[in-house]
Automatic annotation (TrEMBL):
Domain of life: Bacteria
Listed name of the protein: Uncharacterized protein
Native species: Thermogemmatispora tikiterensis
Length: 310
């Protein structure tokens, strides 16, 4: 079960078990030699949960003001939580290591590091010191280059309801050398009691399963993006089914009023910005002031494959 920042704010009872399972799985992964220490795992999980409460997100409802966390996409929010767990696990590993060192070695290490200890900086920059004045800055700093990888894993795991398509993608990842990513996907699915088909399972019509899976992955990646051009591209692809029924035989085109794209949080100005970017990149032939966008099968195929990292 997935969850969003909004779920945690307004439906904590329903979403907390999924949050806790995610944090616990991440904590066990990052704690390394301490992953089987239940107390250490609980410390990491509770630390993140307590901070979410302090920030007014977990169970905050309308009583607490909105923060930047509420405006993150689902993938960005998962990346934020992942980084929170990662940094706290680093802190616990460092503390464990320091406890095992002789005092003389520890003192020498502290003298040599001074105030430039990178681990100390990571821990401090993530949560700050009480009171934590700027959670927005911490949230934005936590959304790093890991976001796309986490988003890709999220979208691959969404294929669990189509086990043959999931196996086809995992097989492709392994073929391309992304064995670690494939292994992480399998581990995270097993953590929520979903077991993918074994690697040795024969797949009839492999290419067909792979093609269907890739189409779902592209749609998932686009739907999680907050990039205006990507959002507009996704909305335009929704008109694919209408192309054959509403296009003219002479042109093979479908005219989509740009006003129809103004919905679900996008203003007309934002739609126009997205259209300008798509036109600049050669995916559309749209001009400033045009009230419609002309689509054909070739353009729709390119739009369906369009993606840009934020």
């Amino acid at each position: 079960m997935s969850f969003t920042a909004r779920d945690l704010r307004y439906e904590p009872e329903k979403s907390f078990p999924a949050l806790e399972a995610f944090l616990r799985q991440r904590a066990q992964r990052y704690l390394g030699p301490l992953q089987y220490d239940a107390e250490e795992v609980d410390l990491v999980v509770n630390h993140v949960v307590e901070r979410l409460v302090a920030l007014g997100l977990l169970g905050g409802g309308d009583r607490q003001p909105e923060t930047v966390l509420d405006r993150l996409s689902e993938a960005q929010f998962y990346a934020f939580l992942n980084n929170c767990v990662h940094h706290k696990a680093i802190d616990r590993l460092r503390r464990q290591h320091r406890q095992m060192l002789p005092f003389s070695v520890l003192q020498e290490s502290e003298d040599s590091q001074g105030e430039a200890d990178p681990l100390g900086e990571i821990t401090t920059s993530l949560w700050g010191v009480p009171p934590f004045a700027h959670p927005e800055e911490a949230a934005l700093a936590a959304v790093t280059q890991q976001e796309l990888r986490i988003l890709l894993k999220h979208c691959i795991k969404a294929l669990a309801s189509a086990p043959r398509q999931l196996r086809a993608v995992l097989q492709e990842l392994e073929t391309l050398g992304a064995v670690d990513l494939a292994r992480q996907v399998v581990e995270e699915l097993q953590a929520i009691s979903i077991t993918p088909l074994p690697a040795e399972t024969p797949l009839a019509h492999l290419s067909q399963h792979r093609d269907h899976a890739y189409k779902k992955l592209r749609t998932c990646l686009q739907s999680q993006s907050s990039n205006l051009a990507v959002v507009v591209a996704l909305r335009l692809t929704e008109y694919e089914a209408l192309l054959s029924s509403r296009s003219t035989e002479a042109t093979g085109e479908l005219a989509v009023p740009i006003q129809d794209l103004v919905r679900q949080g996008l203003t007309l100005a934002e739609v126009q910005r997205g259209l300008r970017q798509l036109t600049f990149e050669g995916l559309l032939n749209w001009h400033e002031g045009d009230e419609v966008v002309h689509l054909d099968a070739a353009r729709l195929r390119r739009l369906a494959r369009y993606y840009r990292v934020e």
